[in-house]
Amino acid sequence: MKDIKEKFKQKSEELGKEIKEILANHGEKEISSVKIRQLYQGMRGMPGLVSETSLLDPINGIRFRGFSIPELKEKLPTAEEGDEPLPEGLFYLMLIGELPSDKEVEEISNAMGRRSQIPKHVFNTIDELPIETHPMTQFVTGIMAMQTESIFAKAYKKGINKKDYWEYTFEDVTNLISRLPRLAAYIYRRKYRKGEHIEPNPELDWAGNFAHMLGFDNKEFRELMRLYLTIHADHEGGNASAHTTHLVGSTLSDPYLSFAGGMNSLAGPLHGLANQEVIRWIEQMRKEIGDGLPTKEQIENYVKQTLDAGKVVPGYGHAVLRQTDPRFTAQMNFAKEHLPDDDLVNVVWRIYDVVPDILKDLGKVKNPWPNVDAHSGALLVHYGLEEYEFYTVLFGVARSLGVLASLCWDRALGLPLERPKSLTTKRIKEIINGEEEV
Ligand SMILES: CC(C)(COP(=O)(O)OP(=O)(O)OC[C@H]1O[C@@H](n2cnc3c(N)ncnc32)[C@H](O)[C@@H]1OP(=O)(O)O)[C@@H](O)C(=O)NCCC(=O)NCCS
């Protein structure tokens, strides 16, 4: 990783200089105004932070350093056995801002293999939790237990120059990303496979090895993992898990503490937990109307029942997107190629035919189209990963790539403690009445 670290240093120094100039010459330029509704409605559309790794367009979806998901598929290095992008390559792209060569991706894969050791006390800590503990709680507990390994925290305690923060962060970030598949696989095997653990295979890439340690040793599943971990890696900086990681990191908490914070955000049903909700919701539908492919009418009735019960249709809608999520489409294309006749996948596709029109008719849903979570579970179930409570952990392993690459940038650019201003409703009323300035 030495060369990659050196390249990151060079890139971040260049950008650091540019940002100084931007601030000196344009720091007072207004780019947006804030509306009262944005204060009450989750700051939607309010620019509030900078994140270099990706940018979300409401219609075209996510672009990682300018590259769309189909472009990543075309341009990122793949494993020899397949044609899905290697997530290590995306990590490089987000970190450095350029497409990696095959050799650079191989260097990251190898380094991740070498750095994946987890101290025993982490496993012991997880083993103390009741087996029924939600996998996300086990995951966050494991990350917190691993904080003993933070190089940043140790160096900070000794005393370091703030110009060097990024170096220790970089080391923590690469170690943590390397260890996460092992931690996640440990939790999976502990909870669902009688604690029969599988040693890593040093020959495999990061995602392939994850599939192997989970216990799914076939080429198609390894390919699915490569795709899955790539498309879930980042969704610009304002989503809850990315923003939480950034916010906690802005206090100079080390990458382990920061990432654990982000994962607690991901564990919410409006964010990363939606993927398990989708499968649970479809299972319930099938219980009510039987297996096999439901008719459009049956789906319509079931959706209406969900809405009448005051619930949301999981896997549909998005805070920013206003079209079918390209991450949904990427998974649909994978399914068309590898498992076009799968029952559950066909149910997901039929739901896609029906739900958008119903949500449009409600008149209030800003985005009636499916998001990433609407499809992911059906693919996993096909290959035998049916324990849907675990799905958010997979999402979390993937999300580490984006939010931790961003954390390297936060430290390299010396971004300060985040501390926005909050107002009371009393103050807002005073502003409305012209009695107070903001
Ligand atoms: C993702 C989500 C939280 C975005 O929330 P948002 O930005 O507030 O969405 P909107 O502005 O479109 O919401 C406006 C209204 O439509 C409703 N709505 C949005 N998505 C809906 C859905 N999938 N099913 C039913 N109603 C929905 C909202 O609950 C809200 O209703 P309210 O005014 O009665 O409170 C929301 O679409 C949702 O809950 N989706 C289902 C869960 C999900 O798939 N999450 C994963 C996201 S990647």
Structure overview:
The chain is globular. 60% of the residues lie in helices and 2% in strands. With 438 residues, the protein is mostly helical. The mean pLDDT is 96. The relative contact order is 0.14. It is built from 20 helices and 2 strands. A two-stranded antiparallel ribbon has the order 1-2. The structure holds coenzyme A (COA).
List low-pLDDT spans. Answer: none
Main β sheet profile: 2 strands, antiparallel
Helical proportion?
A: 55-70%
Termini, distance in Å? 48 Å
Give the strand tally.
2
Characterize the overall form.
Answer: globular
Bound molecules: coenzyme A
Which strand order does the major sheet show? 1-2
**How much strand content do the residues show?**
under 5%
The SSE string, one letter per element, is HHEEHHHHHHHHHHHHHHHHHH
Rg value:
22 Å
- Our count of helices gives 20
Tag the structure with descriptive keywords.
438 residues, mainly alpha, two-stranded antiparallel ribbon, 20 helices, 60% helix, globular, binds coenzyme A
Write the layout of secondary structure elements.
Elements: H1 2-26, H2 36-40, E1 54-57, E2 61-64, H3 69-75, H4 87-96, H5 102-114, H6 120-127, H7 135-145, H8 151-158, H9 165-192, H10 206-214, H11 219-231, H12 240-250, H13 255-266, H14 274-289, H15 296-308, H16 326-338, H17 343-362, H18 373-382, H19 391-412, H20 425-432
Antiparallel strand pairs: 1-2
The structure holds coenzyme A.
